[in-house]
Amino acid sequence: MGWEQIEISLPNCSALQVISFPVVQLHLNRTAMRASQKDFENAMNQVKLLKKDPGNEAKLKLYALYKQATEGPCNMPKPGVFDLINKAKWDAWNALGSLPKETARQNYVDLVSSLSSSLESSSQVEPGTDRKSTGYETLMVTSEDGITKIMLNRPTKKNALNVEMYHEIMHALKAASKDDSAITVLTGNGDYYSSGNDLTNFTDIPPGGVEEKAKNGAILLREFVGCFIDFPKPLIAMVNGPAVGISVTLLGLFDAVYASDRATFHTPFSHLGQSPEGCSSYTFPKIMSPAKAIEMLVFGKKLTAGEACAQGLVTEVFPDSTFQKEVWTRLKAFAKLPPNAMRISKGIIRNREKETLHAVNAEECSVLQGRWLSDECMNAVVNFLSRKSKL
Ligand SMILES: CCCCC/C=C/C(=O)SCCNC(=O)CCNC(=O)[C@H](O)C(C)(C)COP(=O)(O)OP(=O)(O)OC[C@H]1O[C@@H](n2cnc3c(N)ncnc32)[C@H](O)[C@@H]1OP(=O)(O)O
User: Fold this and answer.
1) Sign of the torsion formed by the C-alpha atoms of 179, 183, 188 and 191
2) pLDDT of residue 56
3) Long-range CB contacts (within 8 A, 24+) of 217-222
């Protein structure tokens, strides 16, 4: 195994610094959803062939996934604050938590594949068309074997949804609804599925002040949730780890939810001075009974994957060690079914609820707009951002 030197520059560093990636020569099998050791080694080789620098963020992700895939969870002492390069590498690796080696290997292969296509295609991209399926900042989107996979890709922030990610998910869903895949899958990269709304979204106040901020947030949220309500093909969540806030509430709009036994489901809206969204005020009482929905959505009770399955929010739970393998095998079989039949059957089951769901969505967004201006909400956000509180 040789070593390829890839340069990385960090803010506040006067000179380019260097991170090394191990590289071997082999061939990439892109059709496998589950990366073999051979795929992994091929991907390492492909890194060497990238025509353009993928940027520091991508290189740190590659480094972290490589270390996780080969050595497991971060086992190095934390570098000092002035050792910026090694601290950045350590942070990226450590953020992967207890992500299984096999998942890290798969994510590494996916990342290299997405970098290869995006860097190769960037020279052919027409001006203004910078949101091609391969050119996302916060997602990894791949399409093969009849399955479009949308992977939330901010693992160092626990896949918190920033404004960019809301827009990119909407774009990816709209593209997936028109592509030739039979089913669409949403999952998370790293140890979390998603920690929900990025609370720093609240910090960027426009000239119109907090009222304008709240109004824009409600417009964005309504459009975002609307894309899930209207999605025409089978939409499947692969909940690979803990899920918080809007990433949980949206599950009521998915057609199947497969969860790792590491996943948890937490909607701490009252703790945050907020109120339910994602149509959960309507879907959760129907799925699990009003009392169970109130335990989650009002009292913030966190469910294990087993509990969420018993209450109907999750379709099936898998041991984390076999989660990826078992679910992808199943999804590949689903994707071979006649796509038009699946789309039509989903429509029959879902369409009569659509109008109600859009009305619920509008009401939830309007209530939340008011909540975001409340002292209860502002205090909760300030406490999180000033590191005084966490869930
Ligand atoms: C416009 C549409 C609005 C839609 C309305 C949606 C509502 C919701 O989704 S409500 C739920 C909001 N989410 C939260 O309140 C979660 C806040 N996060 C946490 O409590 C914790 O980060 C944690 C329990 C999710 C994970 O804790 P831990 O394992 O200790 O990891 P860290 O806290 O160190 O997280 C690593 C890194 O990621 C940042 N981060 C994680 N989640 C969020 C988030 N939701 N918003 C912003 N930032 C988040 C965290 O700050 C750390 O960053 P660094 O310190 O820079 O490393």
Assistant:
1) negative
2) 65
3) 217/368, 217/369, 217/372, 218/365, 218/366, 218/368, 218/369, 219/365, 220/163, 220/166, 221/166, 221/277, 221/365, 221/368, 222/361, 222/362, 222/365
Neighbours of 102 (CB within 10 A): 19
Using the mean position of ligand 1's atoms as its centre, give its distance from the Cα of residue 157 in Å.
Answer: 7
* The pLDDT value given to residue 9: 39
Nearest CA-CA partner of 249 in 224, 230, 231: 224
* CA gap 239, 260 in Å, rounded: 6
At residue 112, the pLDDT reads: 87
Question: Can you name the residues that pair with 256 across neighbouring β-strands?
Answer: 236
Side-chain half-sphere exposure of 42, counting CA atoms within 13 A: 16
Structure tokens at 342: 């699946």
Is the whole model's pTM more than 0.90, yes or no? Answer: no
Segment (H or E) for 243: strand 243-244
Burial class (CB in 10 A: 0-12, 13-18, 19+), 381: buried
Q: In the structure, what pLDDT confidence band is assigned to residue 11 with cuts at 50, 70 and 90?
A: very low
Kind plus residue range of the DSSP H or E element containing 304: strand 303-304
How many of the other CB atoms lie within 10 Å of CB of 71?
A: 13
64-111 pLDDT, tens digit each? 999 999 999 999 888 866 566 777 788 889 989 999 999 889 988 888
Residues 6+ away with beta carbon under 8 Å from 268: 244, 245, 300, 302, 391
Q: Looking up tokens 């039949």, which residue turns up?
A: 341
Write the pLDDT tens digit of every residue in 213-270: 999 999 999 999 999 999 999 999 999 999 999 999 999 999 999 999 999 999 999 9
Q: To test ligand 1's pocket by mutation, which of 90, 153, 158 has the most ligand atoms within 8 angstroms of CB?
A: 158
Query: Is the confidence metric ipTM above 0.90 for this complex?
Result: yes
CA 198 – ligand 1 centroid, Å: 6
- The answer to whether the beta carbons of residues 89 and 121 sit under 8 Å apart is no
Handedness of CA 263, 64, 10, 43 (dihedral sign): negative
Nearest CA to ligand 1 atom 45: 198
